[in-house]
Specification:
The complex is a heterotrimer of chains A (about 350), B (about 325) and C (about 700). Chain A is an alpha/beta fold and about 350 residues long. Chain A has helices at about 20-30, 35-45, 75-85, 105-115, 130-140, 145-160, 175-190, 205-225, 235-240, 260-265, 270-275, 280, 310-315, 340-345; strands at about 10-20, 50-60, 65-70, 90-95, 100, 115-120, 195-200, 225-230, 245-250, 250-255, 325-330, 335-340. Chain A folds into two domains: about 60-85 and about 105-280, P-loop containing nucleotide triphosphate hydrolases (Rossmann fold, 3-Layer(aba) Sandwich); about 280-350, CBS-domain, CATH 3.10.580. In chain A, helix 1 (about 20-30) crosses helix 2 and helix 5 packs parallel to helix 7 (about 175-190). Chain B is of the alpha/beta class and about 325 residues long. Helix content of chain B is about 40%, strand content about 20%. Chain B has helices spanning about 20, 35-50, 70, 90-95, 120-125, 130-135, 160-170, 180-195, 205-210, 225-230, 255-260, 260-270, 275-285, 290-300, 305-315; strands at about 30-35, 55-60, 80-85, 100-105, 110-115, 125-130, 150-155, 175, 200-205, 215, 250-255. In chain B, the strands form three sheets. A five-stranded mixed sheet of chain B has the order 8-7-9-5-10. Chain B has a three-stranded antiparallel sheet with strand order 3-11-4, sandwiched between helices. In chain B, helix 2 links the parallel strand 1 (about 30-35) and strand 2. The two termini of chain B are about 35 Å apart. Classes of the chains: A alpha/beta (about 350), B alpha/beta (about 325), C mainly alpha (about 700). At the B-C interface, helix 3, helix 4 and helix 8 of B face helix 4, helix 6, helix 11, helix 14 and helix 15 of C.
Chain lengths: ~350, ~325, ~700
């Protein structure tokens, strides 16, 4: 990863093990296993320890929307709490904009949270005794910002999430969707660079969920935060993510773009996830495109494929084609070829 | 009793007296009010005497058993009716340590003994002679004591004089300690209401003596020998085969009182009250419902000859 | 007591036995062995004096040193506390009574609307009419200072336990001790430390009232949703900001429950404080009237405390709910009217001490108690003798000594003992064959105890049985701790008294469990029954316990049966409440599922509600046990011969060592019983997945 700018978040060999004296147990287990994390995790489990996150490695680029997906109990919530340092990691490295936060002082952590980090929670985590405006202004209050300034900034973010007029209501007076808007507003109050969202839409009903997802994408389009987003919903992950990490039993089994996840699942577990997904809508022509050097001499049909077309659209266009077809970019330059058979095969991954 | 206000402090208009003898007249002398009416009477008489001498007096409610620590600390200054038959061990300790001193006898003629409500004489003919108890012990038996008779004794923390008498006189009675004075009174009351047999350890002066017509059993008169020499008395093999040792009722106070209030110390030391005077006042309060202050004030007015000399003597 | 026990079950089975069966088996063998050996080894039944350590003296000396060391600080604290006491007292006593009544009424409206205002108004009018106004205000002043003290102390303890998880279990133990060591046991040291006067009462009630506050703070802070805590953390709050700006406000409803319980506990302790005196409060009046056995007057003074308790309880309970706001104009209106009325009537107000409107009622209650006793003497005697001969006595000294020609009409013979054990063995065997091995063994153990009597149980048997119970209830740790704690009673020479206490409270708990459980069941089924029982329960729990002693004494005289009844009157309440609560709060879905399966009302009760309510009922039993031990001390005022009596002996003789040791022994019995029952309750809860 030789990127010039440091990654927004970088995790190296991150472990979270629950149990008494976990740290030394972990290093002993690693030594015993000769450095193989899977064997070490197995050993720990036998001793009654819970390796909730094992050997996680990934980085989130500035402005990237990084989704961590897994079933409940897969360790995704633990992972995001390690990164936000709500839980102290058992071992490993976490860097936020290049700064090591595992060894950061308490004071520095509070400083980071006041300036750089924001977090949204699954069940909103609203303070029941505060009004909407007070909830949103709370991160400013703890910094000693004046009441007036707090109110002003709170009103800005409240209108950003579309809650104008409800600023003096109390959380118990709001619907679920509205509550999560407050949660989002509060996490944005200090205008953080890094934004953690822990299953923010899971507790909402489907219609509201979709609406909030769209609004979330709009907000992100303007704010360009570096985001870690947790979900158990593959559809949500595919819809929102720049990249997705899939977790199972504390281990990250695959990291990739939505198309990579859908079309090239690393194992049966990931495949199982994408089983019910309409892959044609999430993968594009470029994922099955072959380079020009495989170009056959003769391409009778040209259904007008583009690299960014979804596979569904491409398949619809190629219904009558049996031979390889060309793909042109927006400027009409030939960039690759596609075998219609590849299209069909890609879409039928799940039937294997 | 409801009118026992907190901190009633009256300054009496005493004659011109040397302030050196009186001591710190501006500071109230705090007298202990314990849990029974007789003691209230005794204390209020003393208090009004002190007021007549020119002192301020404060009446402070205090648990009888637990007041000596306060006396040693100088937070309570005197308690005027202490029964020798029932004193906390703490008293002896505090006297030994020098924080509390005795202020002499009150002169109240007290008696303790084995007693019964009058109607019991019908159940056990031959009373008040103690020998009668031997034959009617069965009449007094209950579930807990069968086959012996039942004697309701003092609460355990007052000692076991009743049980000692039964052993001494070799009477077939088992002593059941009451838990409290209230329990003793409830026994007397229930027995009187139900005309049921009851033998109880009791004392006078006590308002219940007349309220429930309580009689004492005649026991051999106690001499010192009775308590030391088994050979003495009707039972040649045991001590305690006689009536109770006569109990003394005395006064005690904070040992700093003689320096701080010399005249008051003298007044309280010389103060005496007789059963003949106390008992009618108790009746006026408990039976007729008068307030302690008023009953005592009336008595003080009518019986000036009985207390004025003590006050005058201290002041001159 | 030479009785042939049935031979223990043969060895090959042992490997397949459940923990419960194994524990019961060990207990049974221990019982049989001690029973057989007892005639030859007298030390098995009676702990020899030679083995007793002078522990009470050590406690006395040790405590004496410590007390002298901290005495100056304590005295300084007393001096400090006298200021708020004096102010509160002055403010409450010197305020004209119409003003106090008006303010309480206005407060009632503000907190809970018309009904609360009426409650406050009528309650205080009752107090006024009783003639105990001044005493009540003195009491209120004591509560007004002790409750903030207890709230602050309890709050601080709760926060400490929350912030330093390592000390949490130690804090829980301290709270248990504060609640189970009877106040009378430490009055003497308190007196020594803080000096004479109301401050001792203040401290005593604060010690007793702080634990419920601390427990609710701990519970409240624990129950704050993790996400709310995390949100506070992620907002960049430091620990103090997280705690005071977010966690405590979020937990405020639970904390208010703590304040409410704290108030009630302080009020119930007021009477205890009166034993020392120095304040002329309502508790002192109860004591005076109790001493004269004037039931009517004692009841009246006691009811004043009940009225206060009810008013304070209902008003402070509104703080623990999200309440709606009531029209502030009415509040101001009431206040304004009060000021005007007070100002106009200032010269003409009757002295509240001269009011005796309720005295005739008290007198008639008193005389009807007398009449009732007189009229039913024979019947009352029959009840008492029956209960003593056929219940309490055999339980205490065993059938072999309790069965006498005077009482049962025949003597107990070894043949009868053999018959008893044979019958028990038969029942046990039948139960074991039907699959209930533990039950069968317990029947045998029970027969053994009935034969010997609780107060004469050999100590090795008690220790082994408790260890076995502890092991089954929660594991070897509880077993070890229980045995160690009980051993301290044994070597300090208080064992015999402890067994007597155990017998009396055990009998009361058993009776409460059966009768209270039945009443609770009835209240769960019939709303009418609950409507009647609820105010009775409230009254039984708040009236000073002393008040009960008089009628019980009048009816049944000094003795164990009276003490037994007095304990039951107080300890039965939690059993009723928890049983009913557990039964009525079964989730609707379960009931619907059962109903749709065609279950009858009774089948639902037996197969759905009762099992679901089991953990709650066990908690009620637990409370009943603690209440029974607490009441044991009060019941000693009737005349009992257990640890309660030792505590009074110590109090009367200012014997710090004996008082504290006896108090500790009582607390140990209560705590061991508490942990055992909680262990079983926990297991039930887990089994139900709650």
């Amino acid at each position: 990863m030789a990127t010039p700018a440091p990654a927004a978040i970088e995790c190296r060999n991150l472990w979270q093990v629950f149990g008494p004296d976990a740290e030394s147990q972990l290093s002993a287990a690693m030594e015993q296993a000769g450095g193989d994390p899977d064997v070490a995790a197995g050993n720990l489990k036998e001793k009654g320890y819970i390796p909730a996150v094992r050997d996680a490695n990934f980085e989130v680029m500035p402005g990237e929307l990084f989704v961590i997906m897994g079933l409940s109990g897969s360790g995704k919530s633990t992972l995001i709490r390690c990164i936000s340092h709500l839980l102290g990691a058992t071992s490993g490295e976490i860097r936020i904009e290049g700064e090591d936060i595992v060894s950061a002082s308490k004071k520095r952590l509070i400083e980071l949270r006041r300036k750089k980090l924001g977090m949204v929670f699954q069940h909103f985590g609203l303070f029941p005794h505060m009004s909407v405006a007070d909830n949103v202004g709370f991160p400013l209050k703890v910094q000693g910002v004046s009441r007036k300034e707090r109110r002003q900034r709170a009103m800005e973010v409240i209108s950003l999430v579309g809650l104008e007029g409800r600023e003096d209501a109390f959380p118990r007076e709001l619907s679920g969707g509205q509550r999560q808007r407050v949660g989002i507003a509060r996490s944005l109050a200090v205008n953080p660079d890094i934004w953690f969202l822990d299953e923010p839409f899971s507790a909402l009903d489907p219609l509201i969920r979709r609406q909030l997802q769209d609004e979330f994408l709009n907000i992100q389009a303007t704010l360009k935060k570096s985001i870690v987003f947790i979900t158990h919903d593959i559809t949500e992950a595919l819809k929102l993510a720049d990249r997705i990490a899939i977790m199972r039993d504390g281990k990250i089994v695959q990291i990739g773009t939505p198309a990579e996840i859908v079309l090239n699942p690393a194992d049966d577990y990931v495949r199982e996830f994408s089983r019910d997904v309409a892959k044609g809508q999430h993968a594009c022509v470029d994922s099955v495109m072959r380079p020009l050097d495989q170009k056959p001499d003769n391409m009778p049909d040209d259904p007008g494929l583009r690299p960014g077309m979804t596979l569904d659209a491409a398949l619809a266009a190629c219904m009558q084609c049996y031979e390889p077809v060309p793909v042109h970019d927006e400027n009409g330059v030939l960039t690759g070829i596609v075998h219609p058979a590849d299209l069909v095969a890609a879409l039928q991954v799940e039937t294997k | 009793m409801k009118s026992l206000g907190l901190g009633i402090a009256l300054t009496a208009m005493a004659g011109a007296v040397g302030a050196t003898e009186l001591g710190a007249v501006d500071e109230p002398i705090r007298l202990a009010i314990n849990e029974w009416t007789g003691q209230h009477v005794t204390t209020h008489v003393a208090g009004q005497m002190l007021e007549a001498a020119g002192y301020k007096v404060e009446y402070v409610t205090a648990g009888y058993m637990n007041m000596y620590q306060a006396m040693e600390d100088g937070e309570l200054h005197a308690a005027l009716e202490i029964w020798s038959s029932n004193v906390s061990d703490d008293y002896a300790k505090k006297v030994a340590a020098g924080g509390v001193e005795e202020l002499g006898d009150l002169g109240l003629d007290a008696k303790e003994g084995i007693a019964y409500p009058a109607h019991v004489a019908d159940i056990c003919p031959g009373l008040p002679a103690w020998e009668a108890l031997r034959d009617c012990a069965q009449q007094f038996a209950t579930a807990e004591t069968i086959p012996s008779g039942r004697l309701v004794d003092y609460p355990a923390d007052w000692g076991t004089p009743g049980a000692d008498r039964m052993t001494g006189l070799d009477l077939p009675f088992k002593a059941v300690p009451a838990g409290s004075e209230g329990a003793l009174i409830a026994e007397l009351r229930a027995s009187t209401e139900r005309k049921s047999p009851l033998l109880i350890t009791f004392w006078q002066p006590h308002w219940a003596m007349s309220a429930y017509d309580v009689q004492f059993v005649d026991l051999p008169v106690g001499e010192d020998a009775c308590f030391n020499d088994p050979a003495w008395g009707p039972n040649p093999n045991a001590v305690n085969d006689c009536d109770f040792a006569p109990s003394r009722i005395f006064k005690a106070g904070w040992s700093g009182m003689a320096d701080k209030w010399p005249a008051a110390h003298e007044i309280l030391s010389n103060y005496q009250l007789s059963v003949a005077d106390q008992q009618p006042m108790m009746g006026a309060i408990d039976v007729d419902g008068g307030s302690v202050e008023e009953v005592v004030a009336d008595w003080m007015a009518a019986n000036e000859a009985k207390w004025r000399p003590v006050v005058d003597e201290a002041l001159h | 007591m030479s009785i042939a026990e049935p031979a223990p079950v043969t060895a090959p089975w042992v490997g397949r036995l459940t923990p419960g069966t194994r524990a019961a088996l060990i207990t049974l063998i221990a019982g049989a062995v001690t029973l057989l050996l007892a005639p030859y080894l007298p030390w098995i039944t009676i702990w020899p004096d030679a083995w007793t350590l002078p522990a009470t003296q050590w406690v006395d000396t040790g405590l004496g040193l410590v007390l002298n060391l901290i005495k100056p600080a304590a005295r300084w604290f007393s001096w400090l506390m006298e200021f708020p006491m004096t102010w509160a007292n002055f403010a409450l006593v010197s305020t004209p009574w119409p003003l106090v009544i008006g303010v309480v009424t206005a407060l009632g409206w503000y907190l809970g609307g018309a009904s609360m205002a009426a409650l406050g108004f009528l309650g205080l009018i009752f107090v006024l009419a009783s003639g105990y106004w001044v005493e009540s205000m003195n009491t209120l002043a004591l509560v007004a200072v002790s409750v903030p003290l207890a709230v602050l102390t309890g709050g601080a303890i709760g926060i400490l336990a929350n912030e330093v998880p390592r000390v949490k279990s130690a804090v829980q133990a301290v709270l248990d001790i504060m609640q189970t060591v009877p106040t009378f046991a430490y009055l003497t040291p308190l007196l020594l430390l803080f000096g004479f006067g109301p401050v001792v009462g203040l401290i005593a009630s604060a010690i007793y009232a702080a634990p419920p506050m601390a427990r609710n703070v701990i519970l409240g802070l624990e129950r704050v949703e993790p996400e709310i805590k995390e949100a506070a953390m992620m907002s960049g709050g430091n620990r103090l900001q997280q705690l005071f700006l977010v966690e405590i406000p979020t937990a405020r409803l639970q904390i208010m429950v703590g304040v409410n319980q704290c108030l009630m506990a302080a009020l119930s302790m007021v009477i205890i404080a009166a034993v020392i005196g120095g304040f002329n409060d309502i508790g002192w009046e109860v004591l005076l009237t109790m001493r004269k056995a004037q039931f009517g007057q004692a009841l009246l003074a006691g009811l004043v405390i009940v009225v206060f308790a009810v008013v304070i309880d209902r008003m402070s309970a509104t703080l623990a709910t999200d309440r709606r706001r009531f029209d502030a104009r009415v509040t101001y209106g009431i206040l304004g009217a009060t000021v005007i009325v007070t100002a106009l009537s200032l010269g003409f107000l009757p002295d509240p001490a001269t009011l005796t409107l309720l005295d005739p009622v008290a007198d008639s209650v008193d005389s009807s108690l007398g009449d009732f006793t007189a009229a039913n003497g024979a019947a009352l005697n029959t009840i008492k003798n029956g209960a003593m001969f056929y219940g309490l006595l055999p339980l205490r000294i065993g059938l072999d000594e309790a069965v006498l020609p005077f009482t049962w009409g025949f003597s107990w013979t070894p043949a009868m003992s053999a018959g008893l054990f044979a019958a028990a063995a038969l029942i046990g065997a039948v139960m074991a064959l039907r699959g209930n091995v533990v039950g069968g063994l317990v029947v045998l153990i029970g027969a053994g105890i009935l034969e010997t009597g609780v107060a004469q149980m050999p100590w090795p048997f008690v220790l082994i049985a408790v260890a076995a119970l502890g092991w089954v209830a929660s594991g070897w740790r509880l077993a070890v701790i229980s045995v160690l704690l009980l051993s301290t009673i044994l070597i300090s020479g208080l064992w015999e008294r402890a067994l007597l206490s155990l017998y009396l409270s055990g009998a009361a708990v058993f009776a409460c469990a059966v009768v209270g459980g039945a009443i609770g069941l009835l209240c769960a089924v019939s709303p009418l029954a609950w409507k009647i029982m609820r105010p009775i329960s409230d009254m039984l729990q708040t009236i000073p316990l002393f008040v009960f002693l008089i009628p019980v004494l009048m009816f049944f005289q000094i003795g164990e049966f009276s003490a037994f009844l007095a304990i039951c009157a107080y300890a039965i309440v939690p059993m009723i409440r928890y049983t009913r609560h557990g039964l009525v709060t079964t989730p609707d879905e379960l009931i619907e599922a059962a109903t749709s399966s065609g279950a009858t009302e009774w089948q639902i009760m037996r197969d759905v509600r009762a099992p679901y309510a089991a953990p709650t009922i066990l908690l009620g039993l637990n409370q009943t046990i603690l209440y029974a031990f607490a009441m044991l001390v009060i019941a000693a005022l009737i005349g009992t011969t257990g640890l309660g009596q030792s505590i009074y002996l110590a109090l009367g003789q200012a014997d710090v060592g004996l008082g504290v040791s006896s108090g500790a022994a009582m607390a140990i019995l209560a705590l061991v019983a508490d942990r055992l029952v909680q262990g079983f309750a926990e297991e039930r809860r887990k089994a139900l997945g709650l």
